[in-house]
């Protein structure tokens, strides 16, 4: 099965390999590319030293100043967040709505971003490992709270502070245990090397689905992320794309 695409722009071509480890995202991206879904759309959101984002169908022929970033095909994709698929420079990842409205971290049906980021020192990366562990503990705790929502509401209604405190302590302990089962959360030596030499955005690891990486044309991504931007981080000069399956 083909798993490479070419993103052609006025600034050059980018060849991306889609990961077989994330088949739902791979197959969806290939399907949309074959349909010409991305053709004529823009890299509508560009943040220097961070990332370039595209895939919004509403960006096709969009008037200057139009707010972009909410368009899509009308569906989302189940998360395929894997510890080995990290946000190194050149990584292709799926955009999504925030945790508060999207706790399952389902991906946008079409919007994607390519990571640029920056290079990190070893001490900074060690701190990210701690943050990932804390994020996992919080996510497990939030899930447990939702499962006990009815019980919690009843205790609040009855002003059972002792019961609430006991339940909270029990859920915290369960969250810690669940987090430990799913760990470790530190970066591997290979991943640390990637962030130290290539660069990237490690604080996004575990939060968004990474489903591919740039194999050719990383310099083109660099040119795009350097474009002057206006309102909504949209490049002042449109960067139009055409995506073809190789």
In a nutshell, what does this entry contain?
By secondary structure, the protein is α+β, with helices and mostly antiparallel strands.
Widest β-sheet, arrangement of strands = 3-4-8-6-9-2-1-10
The N- and C-terminal alpha carbons lie at a distance of: 10 Å
Largest sheet: number of strands, sense, barrel closure: 8 strands, antiparallel
Q: Overall mean pLDDT score?
A: 93
Q: Count of DSSP E strands?
A: 10
Architecture overview:
There is one protein chain. The protein is 35% helix and 18% strand. The chain has six helices and ten strands; from the N terminus they run ββαββββββααααβαβ. Strand 3 and strand 4 form a beta hairpin. The longest helix is centred in the middle third of the chain and has 26 residues.
What attributes characterize this protein structure?
246 residues, 35% helix, alpha+beta, single chain, eight-stranded antiparallel beta sheet, 10 strands, two-stranded antiparallel ribbon
